[in-house]
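Dear Dr. L.,

I hope this message finds you well. Following up on our conversation about the binding site, I have prepared a predicted three-dimensional model of the protein together with 2-acetamido-2-deoxy-beta-D-glucopyranose. For your records, I am including the exact sequence and ligand specification that went into the calculation, followed by the structure tokens. Please feel free to forward this to your student if that is useful.
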Amino acid sequence: MEYGVILPSLLSFSLLLLMAAVRAQMPGFVSLDCGGRANFTDDLGLRWTPDDQLLYGETTNISVANETRKQYQTLRFFPADNRKYCYTLKVISRTRYLVRATFLYGNFDNNNVYPKFDISLGATHWATIVVSDASTIEFQELIFLALDSTISVCLSNATTGQAFISTLELRQFNGSVYLTQYESQFYLSTSARINFGADSEAPIRYPDDPFDRIWESDSLKKANYLVDVASGTEKISTRMPINVNTGERPPQKVMQTAMVGRNGSLTYRLNLDGFPGFGWAFTYFAEIESLGPNETRKFRLVLPGMPDLSKPVVNIQENAQGKYRLYEPGYYNISLPFVLSFRFGKTSDSSMGPLLNAMEINKYIKKSDGSIDESVIASVISLYPSADWAQEGGDPCLPVPWSWVQCNSDPQPRIVKIILSEKNLTGNIPSDLTKLIGVVELWLDGNLLTGPIPDFSRCMDLKIIHLENNQLTGELPSFLVDLPNLRELYVQNNKLSGTVPSHLVDRNLILNYTGNINLHKGNNRGSHIKIIIGSSVGAAVMLVATIASCLLMHKEKMKYLKQDQLEHTKHTQRLVLSLGDGANEAAHCFALSELEDATRKFEKKVGSGGFGVVYYGKLKDGNEIAVKVLTSNSYQGKREFSNEVTLLSRIHHRNLVQFLGYCQEEGKSILVYELMHNGTLKEHLYGPRTHEQSISWIKRLEIAEDTAKEKLIGLLCPLACLGIEYLHTGCVPSIIHRDLKTSNILLDKNMRAKVSDFGLSKLAVEGASHVSSIVRGTVGYYISQQLTDKSDVYSFGVILLELISGQEAISNESFGVNCRNIVQWAKLHIENGDIQGIIDPSLHDEYDIQSMWKIAEKALMCVQPHGNTRPSMSEVLKEIQDAISIEKGADVVREGNSDEISRNSMHSSLVMGGSLDLGDHCLSIDESSAQPTAR
Ligand SMILES: *[C@@H]1O[C@H](CO)[C@@H](O)[C@H](O)[C@H]1NC(C)=O
Ligand SMILES: *[C@@H]1O[C@H](CO)[C@@H](O)[C@H](O)[C@H]1NC(C)=O
Ligand SMILES: *[C@@H]1O[C@H](CO)[C@@H](O)[C@H](O)[C@H]1NC(C)=O
Ligand SMILES: *[C@@H]1O[C@H](CO)[C@@H](O)[C@H](O)[C@H]1NC(C)=O
Ligand SMILES: *[C@@H]1O[C@H](CO)[C@@H](O)[C@H](O)[C@H]1NC(C)=O
Ligand SMILES: *[C@@H]1O[C@H](CO)[C@@H](O)[C@H](O)[C@H]1NC(C)=O
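The resulting structure of the complex is given below.
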């Protein structure tokens, strides 16, 4: 029996189901009832499907007192062997999901020891499931960004008892609440998601939470949470609606309850599964009590041993800008212990004690890099879509290898043995097998393989080759002679022809080639000549191989060296940026003459500013380029300039204008970039290109999205730079962004935006100073909201307003009397509900008013006078993406509120501040504080 599995038909029918059941549950939900036999919809409206397509494992019924849910009446269990058993689920690449596996033991095996086994996601060890009680549901959740079109959840390593599973649930997010800078390297594993002041012990989940996260009741774990309960701790609740901004925040029902510390303190102690370690921790607050006019509620978080965390003061009403509104401070990366004791304590000038509605703590789990051969072997097994052995799922080597594969024990393992004997393989020997360069033993005997023996000459470790009992044709290839470690070669009973290289016969090799009618041992004379030719060729090959491997080893060594050096900034390093390893990443050096030819002696000027004049150029190969001749000659030293340029060349990101090379000759310092055909955003919105063709609203949103994405990684540049610091001393931090403005946003042929002018360190000194001090102090790890550069958010808000209105940020004419500034002008209109008053007339009503409101509202939040009240860049990005999906008509499956309702609620939330007097307000704003510049 084979143990592979994939669920193609199951998956496709569950997708079909989803289509039919949009009303019943969110799209992107998969709920597998393991061991179940029928489809059903539960009381919550979740649609469950059985895992009956699974080829292995056994199913059984269980019965646990008080557990009546149908999905917990059955389970599937697996043999206690050294294999892994995988569920493969379809996902949408570049989308965030929550995956939840649950386990209710129910004493299914009547064993007197509780099972203990491992669960993994792909190659990554996810958790060890330890059953401690027959009637308690264990569960594990991971939040991850799908990078592929499938995921595998595998059970393995049953240390005691048998591995089993009750349910497997997949929930798709549609936004970026869980976006972190680390998500390409780490998963988030849920440790705590707590609803404080809960009405009952029942958790809050779907449909209250549209993503079916489980918000556990704090009353359930009272014993644990409230070990040293502070006096005056009380439960409060409200029925008032709470503005939670977007659906990925805690659902309203969670926010409507809270605990308060009437005597000034709230204390908690909780066990954090999976910790100690680094985690993502957010608290959720909403003011749900009526504070008198001169009452305040201000408090601080106190964590033993972490005095820095006690500095920020929470003032919910002020931070959230009103009552019944969500405020969600937190840390993207914080080191937490297993037993977390914390206190919220009121400040001395506060009249009310602290309040806490909810909190969420996730642990970072390092993603395994997977085995080296994963993609090669994936293309091999794709040739056998219906073979069981090709469908075991997950990584070929990790956490345990497939049944027909053996791997070495390197951290990133290689396949060393392939055992595909007697698997009815047809066709040629898959040529991808020759790319498994670590393979030592190859067993392909007893199949129906035809065609020639492919060239395994790169697999220098090959020791044992079994090809017997197939229908292979052609000659015994000569590379076999050169495999230095070959000890056994079995090719009997094939249709091979020609002569056996006598070198093969002579050497100390077990060779069986009987049963090949046309294959003969070569005669002595012929083979003698062959040996000579063979060996001289062989020697040459050996020589080349030796040189090559020396070079390779040298390079590998260098790589390890650097890896060591970079170890401590590893995560930040490998985020969205791809940083070259230096060896082959040196910037291209253009000859001045080449650039003179390309630009026809700097004939056509296409832009200026940012320390130089930019010229159009076309290289001999036809590629168009932008050539920036730097005016400032701050780079006297040739080496200094090229060091800087090397750094520039290490930063690649799809939303950054690509740096192609440089030139420094005859006192000129020149930078070469890819040509952005459509010039700057500024030119299109209110510059010379306005009349070409107005940019549609959805295009503008996409431009905003591109820019926001770049901004998110922009922050990381200086961090990434820390790693390089070791290689190039003096780089702290060299690469930073200058102000975001429409003249720095360039548009390519397809009107996608890229950000330019990520300056050289020298050129960008002014901007760099504040960043460098933060970064120096934190060495990579502590990236929290504090590091979120709120001045960028301000600049970005201004850009959003420019995109909405097509107006320049500062203008003497456009904004009426006494008002020179887009922020003041837009604020007045938006807060008065008059969004039409600012929308660019050239958009001609071709937009969805709801998406327009979304962006306008967010833009206003971005330009709040105080940095700490501005949203984070990732929140803004999420809003833009929402607006894009509204424009694309993706809102049909949204929850059923009509446009009318949401528009009204947006108005009311904005107008809450009271009606505004146009003229006065505009005058009263301090000009300097409203300047759309970075601060
Ligand atoms: C579940 O529903 C799908 C689609 O409605 C159907 O194809 C499938 O056969 C059902 N499975 C069972 C076990 O009833
Ligand atoms: C099961 O339900 C009964 C009655 O509702 C209750 O007394 C008992 O404590 C419950 N047992 C468990 C394990 O929850
Ligand atoms: C299996 O589990 C045991 C105990 O939990 C652990 O020591 C061992 O390393 C695990 N083996 C693998 C291959 O993960
Ligand atoms: C508000 O402040 C005034 C003057 O300081 C004081 O008299 C009054 O008692 C306060 N009211 C409350 C509810 O604290
Ligand atoms: C190979 O094919 C034969 C005949 O169809 C079948 O009996 C055997 O089970 C197959 N073996 C494998 C490993 O699929
Ligand atoms: C070679 O293979 C044939 C057929 O499998 C077998 O009968 C013979 O014993 C083998 N010879 C040696 C030397 O192993």
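In brief: The radius of gyration is 32 Å.

With kind regards,
A. P.
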